[in-house]
Amino acid sequence: MSEISGALKIGTTSLVLDLLEGRFCPLNIELADPIAALKAISRDPTLKTVVPLIGGPTIGPVDIQRQYLVAAQQRLGGRDEETDWVLITWEQALADLERDPMLCRDRLDWVAKKWMLDAFVEAEKLSWDDPWLQSLDLEYHNVQRDEGLYAELMRQDKIQRFIKDDDVRLAIRQPPRDTRAYFRGRCIEKFAKQMSSVQWDEIAFGENDHESVVRLLNVFDDDDVARYNAAIDKAPDVATLLRNLEMIRR
Q: pTM for the whole thing?
């Protein structure tokens, strides 16, 4: 729900993948039982739980992330504006989580929810096994602007934002030109009547009991995306589009 939280999830994951590909990841973090560690850390909102490493030492969740952060700062810092934004925001979040997780209630969904539930439990004198709390937990994620609890936090300016509503509305109608979303959107715009289905990873065109499927699952490379998007821009009809895409795939 939180824009900052979502951007951090995607951004930090992308940076860690870059570290992996470059063989720059910290080599001293080998959890003795990664699954058990994940469960233990996720169930402790204080972030004080430590988990064992192979060989006997223990480490806390913030320290794990900080080692990856330092590696990313050293190897990837200054690469571009987006990378630097992720690094700065990541570092600030870790510092605040270490001081007091509640400092991140304006950025991280799990902290915002806990803050709201804590206040509700105190105000209504509830126990933590009350089913009312489960309902509120779900209601936080209600995407209806006039009903969701996250939306209420936004209205009260208690959640940080970095995306404007006008930009969201524009992106719905004009996807970035360097993405597959642009190809799907243009297909719908130009050839909706000839389309039999649209999925995240494929588009089907049907005519005279014949169906032609354009598969997008492996269209990730920037050059391939650019070629597909150029093809849909130039195609005057479905037949031309399919013929040009076939040439691209050869």
A: 0.79
